[in-house]
């Protein structure tokens, strides 16, 4: 009888210990999942606007797909006053689109070229309870790409933090009824990489960051 009682007590202890271990592991798994924020990798683009007095394009020095450096002359224009005006590349990058051609008349503010910059970014939605870990211009933010065969990680910089659109807010219950838990839209910029392509899944693990 004593042996049976001891056996049952032992089984209960094992079950309790096992349950506690599973609960702990479960909490750890949930915590890790919550700390991993994913977004889509996008390429940064800039629209170059004509900023001088009205004129006519006399020469286009680039074609779609060209790689250009900051300061390269993309367009040459003769203004209405007869002066020559050059339109320069504001950054290094790739010509994505040219919206004008020789002979076109230009007015101030007209878009002329869309430049694909040599930088990528991803936007993440972060809860207000976690946003204190992040600051604008924060460097060395590890960005992972979990679905690549070879584990890839690059360091990014937080370029902006803004209040997320209303649809991204979470509704939660607090002691004084229902209230909104605000979300923030965090943009992380990084240099281009031969292994990366726009559209890939980018992941930031908040538990790797320090306050």
Automatic annotation (TrEMBL):
UniProt superkingdom: Bacteria
Signal peptide start-end: none
Transmembrane segments: 6-24
Annotated compartments: Cell envelope
Main location as per UniProt: other
UniProt domain Lipoyl-binding: residue ranges: 55-115
GO-annotated cellular components: cell envelope
Keywords, sorted A to Z: Coiled coil, Membrane, Transmembrane, Transmembrane helix
InterPro entries tied to this protein: Biotin_lipoyl (IPR000089), Single_hybrid_motif (IPR011053), UPF0194_transport (IPR050465)
Keyword Ligase assigned: no
Keyword Ribonucleoprotein found: no
Entry-linked SUPFAM superfamilies: Single hybrid motif
Listed name of the protein: Lipoyl-binding domain-containing protein
Organism: Peribacillus loiseleuriae
């Amino acid at each position: 009888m004593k042996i049976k009682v001891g056996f049952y007590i032992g089984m209960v202890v094992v079950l309790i210990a096992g349950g506690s271990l599973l609960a702990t592991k479960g909490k750890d798994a949930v915590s890790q999942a919550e700390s991993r924020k994913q977004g889509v990798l996008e390429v940064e683009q800039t629209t170059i606007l004509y900023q001088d007095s009205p004129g006519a394009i006399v020469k286009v020095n680039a074609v779609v797909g060209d790689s250009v450096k900051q300061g390269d002359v993309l367009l040459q224009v003769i203004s209405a006053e007869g002066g020559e005006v050059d339109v320069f590349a504001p950054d290094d990058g790739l010509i994505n689109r040219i919206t004008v051609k020789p002979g076109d008349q230009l007015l101030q503010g007209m878009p002329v070229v869309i430049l694909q910059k040599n930088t990528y970014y991803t936007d993440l939605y972060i809860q207000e309870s976690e946003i204190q870990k992040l600051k604008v211009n924060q460097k060395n933010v590890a960005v992972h790409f979990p679905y690549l065969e070879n584990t890839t990680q690059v360091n990014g910089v937080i370029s902006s933090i803004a209040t997320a659109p209303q649809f991204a807010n979470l509704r939660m219950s607090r002691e004084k009824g229902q209230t909104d838990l605000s979300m923030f839209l965090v943009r992380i910029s990084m240099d281009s990489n031969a292994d990366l392509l726009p559209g890939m899944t980018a992941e930031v693990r908040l538990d790797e960051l320090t306050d």
